[in-house]
Amino acid sequence: MKKSTIVAEFKSPIEKVWDVVTNNNEFEWRSDLSSIVISDNINCFTEITKDGYETEFTITVVKKLERYEFDMKNKNMQGHWIGTFKVHNGKTRIEFTEEIEVKNYIMKVFIGGFLRKQQALYISDLKKALGE
Question: What's the pTM?
Fold first, then answer.
């Protein structure tokens, strides 16, 4: 299992950061996605990348303004994501951790770099969405 964590701080209030991250109905700020399909079970959704690649998510923990977690899977991997939200020195501090188990041996070599790249893109997109 590969684990990757990213930490970032934002000037925006914690409520705004939380709302942007957890609102799956408004995903347009994400530069890597073409759509999100929310299932009848509101805790399940599928992200579809601009390349048409689908990943299924099941939300497992929601503690408003504190913690957001979900399981994820697609044909190449499965894993768990944990997001924590805190106010620190007047700023909103997030810490996002992904733990991924890849199904393909070759992907195991590249997954660490891929996760770091994806997390950096997510934070960059989030800063733009927040106007920072």
Answer: 0.92
